[in-house]
User: Fold these one by one.
Assistant:
Number 1:
Amino acid sequence: MIRALWFLLKVAIVIAAAIWLADRPGTVSVHWLGYAVEAPFWVALLVALAALGIAALGYRLLRGVVRTPTRIRRFSRTRRRERGYRALTQGMVAIAAGDAPTARKMARKADGLLNEPPLTMLLSAQAAQLQGDERAAKQYFNAMLERPETAFLGMRGLLTQAIKSGDRVEALALARKARNLQPNTPWLLGTLYDLEARSGDWAAAEGTLQQAIQAGAIPTAEGRRHRTVLLLERSFEAERRGRADAALSHAQAAHDLMPGFVPAAVRLSRLLAADDRLKPAAKVVERAWRQSPHPELADVYRVVVDSYDPLTRVKLFQKLVRQSPDSAESHIALARVAMEAQLWGEARQHVTRALEIEPSRRLYRLLAELERNERNDEAAARDWLAKAAAAPADPAWSCGSCGAVSHAWGGLCGHCGAFDSLSWKAPTVTASLMEPGTLAPALNAPATVRPATA
Ligand SMILES: [Zn+2]
């Protein structure tokens, strides 16, 4: 509607101008270089307008010709970028599909077409890794370190490589550098904590653990257990350095965090008993027995009651096992002290009760001992020993990562170096006895934060 009105208005203006010109007739004469041209005014006006139109057209044509190379360049650049991004996408799809040759081809193509090193370098590195070319991947990761926007990604790549190749010293150094770049990255804090714990840097690991819990990399309950293990290791370390007070205070802190955790209760009660503080030692064992009856706790309790006569010891042990009267471990502990007191009937009764709950090698061996000591019956003892050989294996400190068995609890598996992997259970594979805390060269265990066991 507005357009139609505007058109009518333009027509009206042209007609008005034509009428105005027709009402004012006149001529225009031009004398130039000996030529004389004379024309009515309206013809001169038309000629002037036509000349102006031709000039404008010429200008546009000329401008188009001048701008053509720039336009061609811009068009080809856009097409290049489009092809580059297409190659990048195809490369990423190939990586997801595990197609290494295509991934590498596309990475090279994208690198040639795009001027986006952060994207193409990562793709190239991943493609190289997929093809098993770790050396090439390392070169890309190192190149990524040189740009601030890719430094962290490069560091992550190198860290993953170091962990995979089992170079824990390098991995630890890289993880610490990466933390300086991005201090609150959850996966990094979890990995750094695990590396510090595996390297035995307990104090540093405790600090990193706190950060990892705050960043949500490790659940709070699991973190509490990790902290308990770290404190126990700090206690062992302090003892090795002759700092008895620190050894005791770390053990106390560990026991306070997890009163039912056997290694903490054993550690604290042993240190207290060694310091001749028998009553607190007994309290620690009794408290732990309620949650987790365990032969090592019974051993410490035996040390605590050592100064008493055999019959009093039996009474004191009866007091201990009241914390968990129905467990097999309680009956085994009572059977042992009853045998020491030569209360054969009572000892036999408890062994039988324990056998009903859970048969095991040590129970058959205990019965053999009973036959020898009480009745001097070597034939019966041999029968029980034969049964022991066929019975299920006794529980031991077994590594959840590699299956190795350790004769004593420790924060690190002596075989594979895993942190907090030992739990009290029947071993699943035949494994030799190890000293905990001595790292064997099996470095290929994954450096991840494992869920708590036992
Ligand atoms: Zn292990």
Number 2:
Amino acid sequence: MNVFTISRYGEAMDALKEAQLAQSGYDEGAVIMADVLLVLHGAAHRARRLVELRVFRRDFFRYYEQQVFPATLAQTIGEYETLGQADLIEFSVRVTLNLTADFAGIDRPAGDSRETEHLRRLVATFSEGAILVHSTRDKEVVRSEVRAALAEFDATFYQPSLARRQALLRQFAAGQLGLEQLPRDVLTVLLQNADKVAMPAELMMREIAFYLQAGSHSTANATAHAFHDVSTWCAANPQDRARIGHDPLFLQRCVHESLRLHPASPVAQRRAVCPVALPDGRGAATDDRVVIDMSAANRDPGVFGVDAEHFNPHRVLPEGVTPWGLTFGVGAHTCLGRDLDGGVLPRADTDSAAHQYGIVPLLVQALLQRNARPDPARPATAAENTVRANWGSYPILLDTLARE
Ligand code: HEM
């Protein structure tokens, strides 16, 4: 079996779009990832993605960003405002966990921080399982932790959420409820479309667990990276710090630049399902592996310029290149949460008051509005147990938001 690595931007993009290359980055994490959307291929992937896509529409994102998210954010950030300090990773995970749970279809009946912490602990274990390929721990130990966490999740969160949705769907079928009264989440659409995408009960539970981890840790890591990059840039460029305060479109641009530099997964991995010509001209045989180096592609100087390694929100991009590069993937597996987290790209005539900014820019904005800054007494540390370049802990100080 040969392993080919692709690092140039254009070739990486073409490889991600190649239909004969199947997902293979999560083989080691099968304990949670077996047969979930991200690892499916071909017709089975298309059928399930089409059903789940119904939850991920721009009108719903805009509603969510403007109506639901501010309340979740205010509640969580309020607790830290009172303390005057926070761990950025913990804060972001707590906010985004509620968000991902809403999209996945997991109820939190208590609605308190103890319940969020319970879910956070379970989802942290799912994440470790999903990216087992990058783990530095004993993999069998991690697998048994994931099995235990799945069983606990099933009993405490999943079964009650499932039962509530099944009851609502029965009421809907009996004409006692309208469509708009049903929850808008992945679990509900899967139950509604069981004829199109039949899934064993255990797989449906893992699909929902996969959503929780896919959305929350990537968002939390992106928030920490973006806060760090923007703070560092603003310290050296005070005119941009002032601009960020009154130009949210510029802040969104800064976050996109940070997303480019820190793809959630540094590499995407694929397996040739048949002999295939790779975009760089090499030939891969069936079962050969292709490593698409997203980090390197996103720093390709031929596309992003000689300073591609550095954060520069004023970078001029070639026509058709997205400011976040390949960070949300492209092709069949393009991230379903892309517009939710990164927002919509502004156009020349965009109305900044009605624009959809994305959850990560809004989180960074909320932090900057509270004068959040790295805590000089407690330096940030890198994440352990993974070779991925993420922050493990990022202590910050913050003030109370000045309200008019
Ligand atoms: C900054 C945050 C995020 C980043 C950087 C990110 C990145 C990615 C990437 C790179 C992929 C494709 C992986 C591949 O091709 O191998 C992906 C897929 C996916 N993401 Fe995200 N993601 C983020 C947030 C979210 C959120 C918030 C959700 C859900 C609420 C989500 C749901 C998904 C799903 C369901 C897939 C699988 C799509 C498919 O296989 O068809 N992601 N994400």
